[in-house]
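Usage

Read records sequentially. Each one opens with the input sequence:
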Amino acid sequence: MIKCEKKIPSREELWLHGCAKTTETTRRAIQNSKESIAKLSKYYNLNPKTIVKWKKRLFARDADMGPKHARSTVLTLEEEAVIVAFQVRTEEGKLYLFVAIDRTSKFTYVELHNTATKPIAAEFLRNLIKTLPYKIHTILTDNGIQFTNQKRHKYAFKHIFDRVCTDNGIEHRLTKVSHPWTNGQVERMNKTLKNATVKKSVSPATQRASL
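and closes with the structure output:
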């Protein structure tokens, strides 16, 4: 009968990377040696690149695994709330659908209006603020006239939508000028809402919904 003894790894071996071909003792010896790369490579039976790597390092332990910079799973402020307005056709005619999506909680708020004017956009925001059970920090919209002053109106009074944001401590950010609206979450929600509203008879009066 052949008796096999299980080797108990040393403390040094326990801390080594799973694919490591050298120990910390070997690495320190390489770092302190004045022999050539070729001689060290032959002596330790290692690739010359491995010798060079440990020569350059100031430590003998394995480098930390994972990303060098921690990445937070918390969404940025810009991703907290998105508002968009678009036109839909219903049995009652053309109407405008205002949609707000909180990308953190997935809460969606919708209103249907006859027009998409500045006062209506501002009122939509006020209603959204009243409906949400928490504070909105940042809102992202496109560059529509109902949300922001156009360049040709740079000397005009502050936009009413921005005034509502300021009054409620909300930062209003805009998508890049002439940049397509790329938020997939909003696009998917728009498609769902269009299918729900176009196929139903709705009153021209304001319709509100929280999803």
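Summary fields computed downstream for this record:
- The two ends are 72 Å apart (CA to CA).
- Residues 1-16, 66-79, 198-206 have pLDDT under 50 and may be disordered.
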